[in-house]
Amino acid sequence: MEMFKFLKEKITRKEVEEMIWEVDENLDECIDWQEFRLMFNRNIMDRTGLEPSRMFNLTQFLIYDTNNNGLVSVDETMNLLYARYGRAKMEVKLKELFGEDMHETGRQGGEITFSKFLKAVEKVQMNTFLSTTKGRIATQNKAFGKTTKGAGH
């Protein structure tokens, strides 16, 4: 809860418990190192956009925030994105995260809050899901966000 206060993100105790539950494989209400690594690797490898990602998104933001100011900047994320995706995809990933805020402001470059970071990564996750076969079927059947005809609703 303290980390969310630092990031100026309002979150309930129940939401934190749900974040932990998504990752807690042995259901001991804690995340051990093995569970943490499993969560991280599953999210890195996720090609469906369906992997529970709230803990991963928090972790990723904190990794990017190298100067611990509660914001992530273009400069802070560039090296990590380059190492993960290579030069070709790095610019695309930066634009996904920062959008129009990719301009230089001061020493760090465009900075975004945790809330804005979450919106950006959730949009990418949704687009990833919609590009899968199940995502296309869901949108074609208008089952995504709506009820289908004849579904008894």
The value of Rg in angstroms is 17 Å
Number of strands: 2
Note the overall shape: globular
Mean pLDDT: 85
Low-confidence stretches: 147-153
What is the beta-strand fraction?
A: under 5%
Helix content: 55-70%
Topology as a string of helices (H) and strands (E)? HHHHEHEHH
Terminal CA distance? 39 Å
Structural class given helices, strands, pairing? mainly alpha
Order the strands across the largest sheet as they lie in space: 1-2
Number of helices: 7
Main beta sheet strand tally, sense and closure = 2 strands, antiparallel
Explain how this protein is built.
It is built from 7 helices and 2 strands, in the order ααααβαβαα. It is mainly α and 153 residues long. It has a two-stranded antiparallel sheet with strand order 1-2. The longest helix is centred in the middle third of the chain and has 25 residues, at 74-98. It is globular and about 40 Å long. The termini are far apart. Residues 147-153 have low confidence and may be disordered.
Task: Give a quick rundown of the structure.
This protein has 153 residues and is mostly helical. The chain is built from 7 helices and 2 strands.
Keywords:
single chain; about 150 residues; mainly alpha; two-stranded antiparallel sheet; about 60% helix; about 5% strand
List the helices and strands and how they pair.
Layout (H helix, E strand, L loop, with lengths): L1 H5 L6 H11 L9 H13 L8 H11 L7 E2 H25 L12 E2 L1 H17 L2 H8 L13
Antiparallel strand pairs: 1-2
